[in-house]
């Protein structure tokens, strides 16, 4: 993806330039209602079609998941989980992909200026032309989403169809979903809509139904309605309480300025030492004594 | 360079080439590594042909450094064992820094500061090599978990800063202590330098047939 002029940038990786702030835009969100998903994979197909992706033909891995995980050319994958509760079997189907965190770990970790941007509408987008393929976004992401292509060593993930959203269209997956399990709109509206769905689910016996909008990453711009919101990890390992790893926080936080300060301090200390104490020189007397020793006369 | 009989041979040509390869690769690693460490130094990627090239070439320079440093390690480790003189020297570090070396014990080929540089870099380069492999996704992506890669990134950055700080001390010492640099460029030092800084080593050299 290239950056889109029609979308203002809120954050830009490895950059200190202040973002444009004049235009006011609405935060968007995609709401995935897991309870309405039938696992047809129309969203996966629509994603490939809209984004001109051609995933290589894979192998049957013994599950309905196809491909079995996200890849550089599969930005969304349906993850099927058989959840047994007593005699009851529930088929939990979650559409996996980028969550578009409000506090994106990928963007925090990225060392290449402008390779990852967050638009003011909340979409987190990879700008491939600036990507250097280091894989730091993979380490920064609490959801294990970015994938580095072996073809061009660049990172890829769901763009939330930023190019469609920029012109007022819903993402391709939302457009294709036959059961309207995928909604798209302002984040505010999506939360209101989710509340209705949750009330409905509770009335059908799913007492723990709820919205997945994890606060550990500042909330997300892809949210789920879950029947078992108390146990997100049931859904093919969706993190219960995702956060940017403290190691990444350290690495991309205090370590950066402290390290440069330490290097600068060492340089300045050396300079001050030289101009205050001066060089350590060998005197004429030292040379004479050295000569004496070499000639066998010395001490 | 034993042609000039007024100087003392300190390093063979092979040892100097070994050290120069290590020195150049360490500087290149520091520049390319810092470029990817701090956004304000990203401009350094231009020296290596852009961001993708910097990312690709950095680990290969690391391999060169690791092999080259291993050479230095085996050349010099027996000369870097800690002795009683080193403890005395460290206790008088304040005097040394003030250019006052009176009453210090006679030293072998290396003083305690040089030995600390040697062992410090040995340990840090080992850690840098190990953590670097975990970050070298092109070849080793599947061998470590994401959590291990995160830890490696922190270890790699910390050790790199440590190695750069030691390098600054090492280079500054060569600038400060006059007559040292020719050991690196020409392989020899003057008799006066040897007498002043490494008298015990000097006596051994003189005693050699």
Written overview of the protein:
The complex is a heterodimer of chains A (299) and B (209). With 299 residues, chain A is α+β, with helices and mostly antiparallel strands. Chain A folds into two domains: 9-244, Alpha-Beta Plaits; 254-294. Chain A is 29% helix and 17% strand. Chain A has nine helices and eleven strands. In chain A, strands 9-2-11-10 form a four-stranded mixed sheet. Chain A is elongated. The mean pLDDT of chain A is 94. Chain B has a single domain (13-89, 108-180), classed as Transmembrane di-heme cytochromes, Chain C (Fumarate Reductase Cytochrome B subunit). Chain B has ten helices and two strands; from the N terminus they run βααααααααβαα. A two-stranded antiparallel sheet of chain B has the order 1-2. The two termini of chain B are 16 Å apart. Classes of the chains: A alpha+beta (299), B mainly alpha (209).
Q: What is the level 1 CATH name of the largest domain in chain A?
A: Alpha Beta
Strand residue content of chain A: 15-25%
CATH topology assignment of the largest domain in chain A: Alpha-Beta Plaits
Number of helices of chain B: 10
Short description:
The complex is a heterodimer of chains A (299) and B (209). Chain A contains nine helices and eleven strands.
Topology diagram in text:
The complex is a heterodimer of chains A (299) and B (209).
Chain A: E1 9-12, E2 28-33, H1 42-50, E3 77-85, E4 88-96, H2 105-109, E5 116-119, E6 124-126, H3 136-140, E7 147-148, E8 155-156, H4 162-165, H5 172-176, E9 182-186, H6 187-203, E10 210-212, E11 222-226, H7 246-252, H8 255-277, H9 284-294
Parallel strand pairs in A: 2-11
Antiparallel strand pairs in A: 1-5, 2-9, 3-4, 5-6, 7-8, 10-11
Chain B: E1 7-9, H1 13-37, H2 51-76, H3 84-91, H4 93-97, H5 112-135, H6 137-140, H7 146-176, H8 181-185, E2 188-190, H9 191-197, H10 199-207
